Amino acid sequence: QLQLVESGGGLVQPGGSLRLSCAASGFTLDSRSIGWFRQAPGKEREGVSCITSSTGSTYYADSVRGRFTVSRDNGKNTVYLQMNSLKPEDTAVYYCAAAQRPLFRFTWRTAEYYDYWGQGTQVTVSS
Prior knowledge:
Elements: E1 3-7, E2 10-12, E3 18-25, E4 33-39, E5 46-51, E6 58-60, E7 68-73, E8 78-83, E9 92-99, E10 116-117, E11 121-125
Parallel strand pairs: 2-11
Antiparallel strand pairs: 1-3, 3-8, 4-5, 4-9, 5-6, 7-8, 9-10, 9-11
């Protein structure tokens, strides 16, 4: 059974940092492109970042580029999202998702391309 489990969310002050983890079971993460999405109350789900399966290329939304870093630890079968310089507008439920098809610069944000999703972890940035 393929499963993704996120962890690492919580409450942090503006300017703080969090590291989210996305652990996989039932498959190896390096065989899939892994995307991070977030959804704030009353807003549409948006793509935050992606690390591809084939080349390990990374992509970021403009709103997080330079502050967030996605990485993969194949030994632990886990993908991480390091979030620095957090802002109140980063508050959302964060989800990781796995896609079997290859993803590229103009396709990684399309949620329909992802086959498996985690349950989400809440990130709240507030003073």
